[in-house]
Structures are given as structure tokens and as C-alpha cells.
Amino acid sequence: MPMRNQKRPALRMNMSKLEAYLRDQFGSGVRLLDAREIGAQGTQGMKDFGYGKPVFIRFEQNGETREAVLSTMRGDKYGHQFYWDRAAILMFQYETSARMEKHVRPLALGYVNQRDDMIPVNDPREFFILNEMVQGYDYFRDLERIRKKGLEQQDLDRAQSFARWLARVHAEKKDDPDLYLRRIRNLIGASECIFGLVDSYPHPYEMFPPDRFRNLECRLIDRRWKLRNYSHRLAAVHGDFHPWNVLIQPDGDFRVLDRSRGEWGDAADDISTMSCNYLLFGLYDQPKLSGPFERLYMTFWDEYLERTNDREILEVIAPFYVFRSLVIASPEWYPNHPVEVREGLFRFMENVLADDSFAYDRINSYMS
């Protein structure tokens, strides 16, 4: 399997592959007549920045001459770093352009595979992925058992194994300040992250009125500017490492599901996600973190810090805790929480922004 984090070579388009694509798309009666770049630098007036190099194509289809323009997108720091970013833009253009008056009509959509073959995508409606089947049970079942029957040594061992695994994952670093800023920008403002979650709550919401949401957002803007100074932290991440995305296998090992929101980010994302769920389960029994879930939480944190010595994570983790708290306090995603549980998560979410550095070993100081 190719390494996904390696720099991809430039696309190589040749006449034979282009002609093969046109035949796959429009039928065997196609003959390519001409292909050349258009819109070269200096030919677009004052506009000096573009996303791709369009190629003029002339071909013959069943005796009729047709002309078209083939366009790609180049990667850049404006949310187009990865091929799936660029694919989303091109899919949008293919789906919607024909519905706009006077817009040029899209003729075809396709992709270039690892061998530089051009493959048609015809009339897409939805995309899917096929994954392997792994035997096991969801980790949250362990947390439910712990609430009822108490903690076992294997539970502490498992929390340590999670921390060791994350330490290995996060050890892979990437030097790309623009990508780190994108990840923080998405954390604060993306539709599936903090601002999007705020908008998903009932409005007005009695338990967390609009003024509290507004104050929360203002404080997060300050954190966004603080995190501009931490772009050196860009690391490989899972992005959604919570108890419903971990499968415990019959031999006691674990596998993970549903990597989300990008390959690169801040380690604080993964650490906050799992540790905040220990808080969630603990709040079902006490208005603070105590007992078995406090032990799990401390075991997880202590092991991670021992393995990584990443004390800097405590300076950046607060907005990630806000995001995860909004998720697990959501009345839409978790409709059956007792009032006391939501109130505890909201207290934590607001208080964690008060300190410049998170005191992980004094978590209950954020619960009052």
C-alpha cells in the first residue's frame, strides 16, 4: 500500500491515456485530435493566482468534432491540501453547474489513479467505503460494566495501552504550519466542530442560554490566537478516539474505527476525547470525577505523559476539551443524560478555559 503521507508526484497526462478516458466516458467512437494547456500565466489580466492548469481538448465523436476543457486543482493552504479536498470541490461543480443559468455545462467527472490512468465517475449520487470486518465489542461496554461492577486490573492495563498507542501515533510529526492553522481553524469554526455544535443546540437553550454560548465563543477566539504559536505540534492523529470507536478484540487487544477530521492535527485532540469520556461516565455517579473513572483518567494521562514527556499539551488542550464537552453534552447526540451530567460537562467546559495551562491532575478544580 502506498504511504498516504508521502508527497505525491505530479500528474502526468499523455495523449493515449487521455484518449482512453474519452472513450471510456463517451464511447468507442472517439478519436482525440488535440490537447494543450490554456490560461497560461500572464494571459488572465490582473488575475495571477489559479487553482489548476486547464487543458483544451478537441476530439471527434462518431464523426462530430467536440471541444472541451479539462481542469484539475492544485493543492494549497486554503483547505485544499489533500486530494479529497479537491475532489469535493470538483464534485460540487459537476453536480451544480448545469443548474445555473448561463453557466458552462459539465460533461464528465473522473479521477486519476496511482498509474496515472484517467477513470470516469459517471452520475455519482453517493460514495461508500468497504472496510474489513473485525471481531470484538465496543469499549463503552467496559465503561458500563465498571459503573455496575467496579474496576478490574485489565481496565487499568487497557487505559495504559491506549496511551502507549497514542504516544506512538503522535510521535510522527509534520512540518506544515498552514496545515496546523487549518486544523485549529476547523476546531473552532467548522460545521462539525465547535461553532457548528453550538448552532446545533436548541435556541434558546434553557440549560446554556445564548449569552453563555456567546461568551464561550469569544474566549475561544483568544485561544485560537494563542494556538498560532504552536504549529510545531502538528502530528499524526486519529481525530475521534472515543469509546464508541474502539473495538476490544477477543484476545484483549483493540482496534479503532472511523478516523475523522484529517490525518494531521494536535495530539490534544485524541487525549481530550478519551479522557473527557471518562469524565462523562464518572458524572453519572458524582458531580465530580471520582472512584474508578478517576483512576482510569489518571492512569491514561500519567502513562501518556510518561511516554511522551509532552507537558506542552497542557497549554493547548482547553479548546479541544470544549469541543468534546459540547459533543457529549449535546441533547441531540445524547438525549438521555440526567440534568446533573449536562451541568457538570458545561461547568467543566467553561472552567477549563480559565487557566493558561490545564492542571490534569486537579481536574476537579474545574468542576465547581
From TrEMBL:
- UniProt KW Transferase keyword: yes
Record's InterPro entries? Aminoglycoside_PTrfase, Kinase-like_dom_sf
Limits of the Aminoglycoside phosphotransferase domain: 132-275
Q: List GO molecular-function terms, semicolon-separated.
A: transferase activity
Instruction: Kindly state which keywords UniProt assigns to this record, in alphabetical order.
Output: Transferase
Q: Which Gene3D superfamilies match?
A: 3.90.1200.10
What is any Pfam family matched here? APH
Q: What is this protein called?
A: Phosphotransferase enzyme family protein
